């Protein structure tokens, strides 16, 4: 999945580490588009240390799980 420009901006402004719940809470607070919130809802239940980790998990969920576990 390709992240939208608004989702990319949102991820860059988030404070990390952040859990999936943190991301969803802040996305709703920032009134992110429903499609972007849906993408965040598909993330695995884990903590992310940086925006690139979230972006990777959004693009290739199966591949990201392997890379992020390493």
From TrEMBL:
<protein>
    <recommendedName>
        <fullName>DUF2795 domain-containing protein</fullName>
    </recommendedName>
</protein>
<dbReference type="InterPro" id="IPR021527">
    <property type="entry name" value="DUF2795"/>
</dbReference>
<dbReference type="Pfam" id="PF11387">
    <property type="entry name" value="DUF2795"/>
</dbReference>
């Amino acid at each position: 999945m390709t992240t939208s420009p608004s989702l990319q901006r949102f991820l860059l402004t988030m404070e990390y580490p952040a859990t999936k719940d943190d991301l969803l809470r802040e996305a709703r607070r920032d009134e992110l588009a429903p499609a972007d919130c849906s993408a965040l809802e598909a993330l695995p239940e884990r903590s992310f240390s940086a925006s690139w980790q979230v972006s990777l998990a959004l693009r290739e969920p199966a591949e990201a799980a392997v890379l992020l576990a390493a």
